Amino acid sequence: MIKPPDPPPGLMAVGPREWMNVWARVIAAPSVKLVGAMAAYFADYSTGADIRPGNEILAAVSGGMDKRTVLKSLAQIREWGLIWRYSEGRLQGRRGMADVYRLTIPEHALALIPMLDPDYRHPVDNLPRSGDLRSGDLRSGDLSARNR
After folding, report:
1. Predicted TM-score of the model (pTM)
2. How far is CA 27 from CA 17, 19, 68, 116, 143, in A?
3. Backbone angles phi, psi at 49, to 5 degrees
4. Which segments in the chain show pLDDT lower than 70?
5. Quick one: which of 25, 78, 104, 145 is 20 to 30 A from 36 by CA?
6. Whole-angstrom Cα distance, residue 107 to residue 145?
7. Within 13 Å and on the Cβ side, how many CA atoms surround 62?
8. What is the pLDDT of residue 111?
9. Which distant-in-sequence residues (6+ apart) come within 8 Å of 15 by Cβ?
10. How far apart are the first and last CA of the chain?
11. What local confidence, expressed as pLDDT, does residue 125 receive?
12. Structure confidence at residue 139 (pLDDT)
């Protein structure tokens, strides 16, 4: 297998299990949550890369969701930095080529993404204050509630 490219600075590549631990805490519309979970299903387990089911398949496995809803959901997930598109299918010169994604976690996730607290009960007060980019460690103790 070819090694996938590293994400740009500020994004950390992660595998599906680690990503789902963060994704479970994200506060989003049900359509966004489902598209994110289904995209993660298609990721390479060790790298979180090579997500390329295409929009039609994502729509189908998301309960027959409208393709435009899938596109809007992916755009939201990309905006949060939780998925990185490293190959844009339509730019490859052939119609029908799927975009290729990698699961990522942004450095300052807690300042960028609406999330539940580590106990999955209440939204985190993560509205940025002036000069405050609280990163928090989403990968360690901050997510320990999932394993209780």
Report:
1. 0.81
2. 18, 14, 21, 7, 15
3. -105, -175
4. 1, 90-96, 127-148
5. 145
6. 21
7. 28
8. 85
9. 43, 45, 46, 47, 48, 103
10. 36
11. 82
12. 44
Token reading at 27: 């506060």
Name the token pair of 82.
């939780």
Q: Give yes or no for a contact between 72 and 36, defined as CB atoms under 8 angstroms apart.
A: no
What residues does 51 pair with on adjacent strands? 101
Question: Residue 106's beta-bridge partner residues?
Answer: 11
pLDDT at 126: 72
At residue 89, the pLDDT reads: 72
Q: DSSP letter at 123?
A: B
In angstroms, the CA 90 to CA 67 distance is 16
Token pair, residue 55, equals 């929009």
| Predicted pLDDT of residue 134 | 42
For residue 120, count other CB atoms closer than 10 A to its CB: 11
Residue with tokens 């490219």: 5
